[in-house]
Amino acid sequence: MTNEKQETTAITLTVNGETMSGVVEPRMLLSDFIRQDLQLTGTHVGCEHGVCGACTILIDGVSVRSCLTFAVQAEGCRIETVEGLLERDGKLSPLQQAFSDHHALQCGFCTPGLLMTATELLRTRPGASRDDIRDAISGNLCRCTGYQTIIDAIFDMGTRLLAEEKSA
Amino acid sequence: MTIETKIGIGASMPRREDARLLSGRGRFTDDLLLPRMAHAAMFGSPHAHARIVRIDTAAAAALKGVLGVFTGKDLAGVMGPMPTLATPPVVQHCVAFERARHVGEPIAVVVAESRYIAEDAVALIEVEFEELPVVVDPEAAVKSTGNAVLHPEFGSNIVHQSRHAWGPVEEAFSQAAHVVCREFRWPRVGPQPLETCAAIADYDAITGHFQVWANMSQQSVIGPKFAKILHTDMAHMTFHIRDVGGSFGGKATLYHVPLLAAVLSREIGRPVKFVEDRAEHMTAGNQHASDRLYKAELAINAENRFTGLRLRVLDDMGAYFLIATGAHGNALAQATGPYQIDALEYDLTCVVTNKTQQAPYRGFGGEVGNFVLERMVDAAAAELGVHPVELRRRNFIANDQFPYRTPVGNLYDSGDYTRVLDAAMALADEHKIWDMPKHAAPGKRIGIGLATVNERSVLSMTEFWLLDADPIFPQSSSPESVQVSIHADGTVNVSIFAPHWGNSPETMAAQITAHELMIPPEWIRVVQVGTDGGMLSKGPAGSRYTAMLAGAILGACTKLKQRILAIGAHRLGVLIDEAVYADGQVTCKADSSRAIALPDIARASHSHRLDFPGDDQTFRSGLTESFTCDHPRATLPTQDRTDLGVFYPIVGHACHIAVVEVDEATQSSRVIRYVAVHDAGTIVNPRLVDGQIRGGIAQGIGTALYEQYLYDDEGQLVNATLADYGVPTSEEIPDMILGHVETPSPFTAYGIKGCGEGGRLAAMPALAAAFDDAYRDSNLYVDRLPMTPSALHTKLSQLKPV
User: Fold this and answer.
1) For chain A, what is the radius of gyration of the CA atoms?
2) What is the residue-averaged pLDDT of chain B?
3) Among residues B656, B10, B741, which one has the least CA distance to residue B416?
4) CB pair distance less than 8 Å for A47 and B25
5) Which of A2, A87, A107, A114 should be substituted to probe chain B, the one whose Cβ sees the most B Cβ atoms within 10 Å?
6) What is the ipTM of this complex?
7) 3-state secondary structure (DSSP) of residue B288
8) Based on the domain organization, do A28 and A94 belong to the same domain?
């Protein structure tokens, strides 16, 4: 129970394309490391028990609850957070813009997690149906919108990606 | 007027708030990291009711990295008890001492270098408790004696009892052709925003000044109360505005989190952050809502018209009584709903029990009243053998009765209930809802339910005390302020004084200012200013913000436009009434080619004072005007409460039609179709109004089907995680079909009515009726929520003994 001599570990990982490192206690949550040590506060913590999905990030392209992951587990991994979604010129990405266009956010607290879940889905299955999307985002709680407009935004984005794929 | 139609009131203008929230640059409280910031964690009571015999904090205090450990007694010397609206007050301390009254109640707090260390230290605190009898059943609480009384100074667990009657109640019931009687049990649920309550405070020992960042609201109204509790004054406190990750009402009474951060910062001399974890939010956040038992009677005459309503209500407030009877005052604003019912009796008992206390939640008791009334109407229809839709039509207040005074004295401003009902029926028809077969799939049955409810909006404050004979603090102000400044280049700064908590205050301010000044919204910057701005803001509560903000902006812009016109006319060399302001310029009425644009007027106002008459304040330098909008129509109740006054007169209306599908084997259910038509008066931004309605319905579905705080007999909250408490996911919420009717309010700017709560004011009775319909062959009547599979199973087995 004492932390007089909590051992620490050095970790290095890639976050949104940049190499970052830190020294952490083994028990430090990845969500806390991202928010406090890296000061990337776009990843939100809603329940700290892996249910609400607000802290969802991508590790090596796969969606993960950062509140259920220790920072040390991310050693050497490629992490993507909401801050990495912006276009190079600093503008909103088409997915982010679609969320705004469809009014897919109100308070915005769950939004970063939903954007990351949607990013993973659209990379793998841009042709996902509305039912597929409903299923894919069912691990991300939103208390404001009733989800419909979130599904609209992701479906709209998927439709556009599919059209781009076909024309390419 | 081209600009107005594109960008003004009625346009789905994109949201101002979105860019930062979508890019991870929101300004939530926990996002703020201050130098030398310390972190607080609390020790919550493991017992629902216990005397605190001894607290040993030595081991916790000795832990490396711990900056301080404080018990309730320690803090009682440096701060007062929490604010309360109750008469007489039920005393509550931020950290309890002597007695713990519910599981999770803070017993001690630790401040440490990190939250990890703070929580390590919490685990080292040893408390000796002497357990007391636990009260979790409100009906048992009425009879509690001895050690089962939570607050001995009250002598019992009854903290409020009143009986009021308005109109000819006895006559209505003695002469009734038919009286319908039912009992209801309303479940304890809560707002459950994704962001828990959070605060950061930074006390400067040199100046004695506090800075507070918290996801609270109405900082300018609550701030002075906090200052008094902290033994200081508002000249030594600054409350900053942060983004709020959802409130739905609960954070309107967020007191102990910012108060604790503030007092701890002063005690340890460093900035302190205190963020609830989810379990703390659920057990100790003071964030539960109405928990009621009803006995209801509806008198009906031979023409099937409702003549009287009797409501006997028992409300389980939890361990304290912060919101007093506010949620009953609220229900009384529209207790008779959209129907002409001339007599009402309201018999209320509020008890305290060993649960976390109540706070506001979207609907604030009005949704419970709506549920009970609509269920009574459905029961009446069944007993009378009348179609429930026809019974509603027959009893609706007619269009020529507005403004309509309800039996309690509240006023309904305007409405067209038949048109809303017709629109909803037509939408359901268009989407083939009436044609849906009862057994569409094998093993499934469907039911269709309808509700027609009112949506009182634009809070006035009297609801919190009008049931008290002699209130300690009869507050009646509910102001909203803005300051509008036009810069030298013609662009505009609008200062508002309320947080973004899921509504769209910046968008609303920009849109309404653009409408009123007839300029592009890109010229307008909206800034949220805390208490240093010095203006009063009640903020978002009781579906008031947009209507009140619009009144404030209209007031400020009217003053500005008078000065803009005077300056422009002077520059053009004409009299004021020979010129007109429109579309961002002042133009000569006689010669439209002679005009001066707003940027030129602004530059003149900022820089060329000596070009204008010296003694006329109209031409004083700069174009800044502020305006505080008070409630447009509220009045006080009479001393004897035979007339409660006008307290919620901006009244919308809604008709919801819900379709549920039930699995016959498991009795699990889901909502498969949903139609909602709302009248929220003049709509400022249709897309945002739809968003509010959908969100409210989603929460209504949660209340009706999935959610409930469950306490066991020992007062343990057994589902204090989001895995166990059923906040609906995307799988549980269907796409919704929405429609609108607009009857503008004659009382507000532009005719706006509130719409923030409407979805949750209407959804539950429609869903309950849908369950009834699904099991019409078994005579199911839903009188309690949520209709979980086990609840439905129990109900059905009572109807059909196996």
Assistant:
1) 17
2) 97
3) B741
4) no
5) A107
6) 0.97
7) strand
8) no
